[in-house]
Amino acid sequence: MIMFESFIEYKDKLIPPSGAITETVDAIRQKIQGRGGAVLVWAESEPVGSAQYYVEEDYLYIGRISVLPAWRGRGIGRRIVAYLEDTARTKGLAQVRLEVRQSLPENVNYYTKLNYVLIQEHEYPCKRDRWYTMSKSLSERHLCEGGQRIEI
Predict the structure, then answer these.
(1) Is 87 helix (H, G, I), strand (E, B) or coil?
(2) Nearest-5° Cα angle at 40, 35 to 46
(3) Nearest one of 136, 101, 102, 132 to 117, comparing CA atoms
(4) In 10 A of CB 21, how many CB atoms?
């Protein structure tokens, strides 16, 4: 629900459409099963943010970072990313990757400010948009928020 409500604003703006709008619970489960998980952020009893992650050979991939529109601008996305960076560190991984649409430059700028760099550019088969793979090398540092629960 959080992912859908966070991505629905792009429904008629992105070509091809974001897969986040049609991705099923079963598809998510298959993608992360045995190699990852999901993060759910709560504000008291209300879920307000989420993300998926999974381990590839030598990095942690973060996908579908989602914050409900009414909760944006409060640092929730940044804290989700920091939490998953710490998750990568605890798994002994030195790199985190995520993907961003070229047609959403505000998102590219957001991750650039979080010290992610462009490492690959891809083109959709329809040739109407591109996406970037962005990466961040992780250094040793303490775990954010005690390493487990994020309070907002």
Answers:
(1) helix
(2) 165
(3) 136
(4) 14
Q: What is the pTM of this model?
A: 0.85
Residue that the structure tokens 């209300």 belong to = 46
- Let me know: does 68 contact 5? Beta carbons within 8 Å: yes
Number of H helices, E strands in the chain: 4, 6
Strands 95-101 and 130-137: antiparallel
Residue 150 has pLDDT above 90, yes or no: no
What pLDDT shows up at residue 149?
45
Q: Strands 36-43 and 46-55: what pairing? A: antiparallel
On the question of pLDDT at 107 being above 80, the answer is yes
Location of structure tokens 């989700």:
80
The CA distance from 148 to 120, in Å, is 31
Q: Do 23 and 30 contact (CB within 8 A), yes or no?
A: no
Tokens of 20: 């986040």
Cβ atoms of residues 2 and 66 within 8 Å: yes
